[in-house]
Design a protein that fits this description.
This protein has about 250 residues and is an alpha/beta fold. The protein has helices spanning about 20-30, 40-45, 65-80, 105-130, 145, 155-170, 200-205, 215-225, and strands at about 10-15, 35-40, 55-60, 85, 135-140, 180-185, 240. It contains eight helices and seven strands, in the order βαβαβαβαβααβααβ. A seven-stranded parallel beta sheet has the order 3-2-1-4-5-6-7, sandwiched between helices. α1 crosses α8 (about 215-225), α3 (about 65-80) runs parallel beside α4 and α4 packs parallel to α6 (about 155-170).
């Protein structure tokens, strides 16, 4: 098995900012060809100068299955293959809200983006990977999906669903040369935190034994290993990135 990323093509969702951008820059440094997907088309245009490898931009609404299918088709037409999928796109939705006060519409939106979007992309990327007997899929879950954060029903439940999907998919494709894993960060310094109530943020950070947020570099470095050819015997697993909060 090759240990390099030579010729590899990666789809990264949520690539216009935050986790997705950090991952895109890290994979770009390895010469991986990038298909960058985000509903923020202007944001995608702005990040282009920061990339060091060949890329293509795909403005897409991940909650719409036909758009996702068209996007994956476009990636194959552009680059000829799909080797890596990293699902970074996600939202917290409204937080600091008890379950009985959660708005149904908001909960459905969070599930549509966090879970359905990740399922749609994997649904259409997997046949391309199966054709080559190789692939790396990484879903972004969250520590909230393992433990549940009070006041964050929609986010916690949607990320728990992502974890469940990862375990199912890891088993389903274990003999195909495709690994499917998740990563469960605790609080990471991104713009996603800007709109979160201070009380909610403090609740989350106080649970971390290291007493700090994780950094985007720490996320990107772990992602790089998970999607590498070297990570060939770990699948259906949820990698910890929680500063000691979750050691299981």
């Amino acid at each position: 098995m090759s240990t390099s990323f030579e010729g590899h093509v990666a789809i990264i969702t949520g690539a216009a900012s935050g986790l997705g951008l950090a991952v895109a820059k890290k994979l770009s440094e390895q010469g991986i060809k990038l298909a960058l997907a985000d509903r923020d088309s202007s944001g995608l245009q702005k990040i282009a100068p920061q990339l060091k490898s060949e890329y293509a931009l795909f403005p897409v609404d991940l909650t719409r299955e036909q758009e996702v299918e068209k996007m994956v088709t476009g990636v194959v037409e552009k680059f000829g293959r799909v080797d890596i999928l990293v699902n970074c796109a996600g939202i917290t939705g409204k937080t600091n809200t008890k379950s009985h006060a959660v708005e149904t519409e908001n909960l459905r939106l969070v599930f549509d983006i966090n879970f359905m979007g990740s399922w749609f992309t994997s649904k259409y990327a997997l046949p391309q990977m199966l054709a080559n007997n190789y692939g790396r899929i990484l879903h972004f879950a969250s520590i909230a999906g393992k433990e549940g954060n009070a006041g964050m029903l929609a986010y916690s439940a949607s990320k728990a669903a992502v974890i469940g999907m990862t375990k199912v998919q890891g088993k389903e494709y274990a003999e195909t040369g495709i690994t499917i894993n998740a990563i469960a960060p605790a609080v990471i310094k991104t713009a996603l935190l800007d709109g979160m109530p201070e009380e909610q943020l403090r609740y989350m950070t106080d649970k971390i034994p290291m007493k700090r947020c994780g950094t985007l570099d720490e996320v990107a470095n772990l992602v790089l290993y998970i999607v590498s050819p070297q990570n060939s015997f770990t699948t259906g697993f949820v990698f910890d990135l929680s500063g000691g909060r979750a050691t299981y």
